[in-house]
Amino acid sequence: xxxxNSNSLLSNIKVLFVEDEENAREELSRFxxxxxxxxxxxxxxxxxxxxxxxxxxDMVVTDLKMPILDGLEMIKRARNxxxxxxxxVLSALSDSETILKAVDIGIVKYLVKPVDTDKLVDTMxxxxxxxxxxxxxxxxxxxxxxxxxxxKQELEQKxxxxxxxxxxxxTGKGPKNVQVFIQGNNIDIKAESVLTLFENNLIINxxxxxxxDYNRRLFYMENKEILEGAIESVLNSKVELEKVEPDSFNxxxxxxxxxx
Length: 260
What we know:
alpha/beta; Threonyl-tRNA Synthetase, Chain A, domain 2; 2 domains; 11 strands
């Protein structure tokens, strides 16, 4: 990923790289500097721990076998201090006991040396996406982070049009209003004034609400892939319909989509 793209995922995170072997440290540091927003470099676990305490990086990439303080002990102490960032371990050690120890103290990924840089970047991008969605509450679409409010509103407006068109095409009744809100990993949609004439007749005198809600939920689930496809065409990113909550009492439907 090219750091010149200011919207790239990795360019929005702080990374700590800890490696005692000089050549490996310099080579991978150059590689990472071109890709991440801010890179801190430690020569051993003690330096790494100091960086974690003083700078709270979003992600740590570390060797295990190091002088003064090894990687496992550094991670253990960092977790005990309350550090909850993502941790990637790079090590020539591939025995199951070492891996289990690392997992027990809270690593997220374990990559065996020599480092496959493509695999490392893929792993870092996956973790960065999760960090920016869940912790920083940013909107992430594919490999980009949408920091532009106008761009976000533009996408929300396009999704609104797609949902309204879908409902009009498949039920014969378009909603009076559709509200769309993208935040973090979620797309919240509320459609208002959605009931057809037949459905409105069914609930006269406050009867048959459960039946109408059941049928509307079934309608969305049966056409799930079509609606997901319509939204994916706007975002150019995969989404999944996670929740459907029809509310015939208030003549509205609530839909929750998540990025996948």
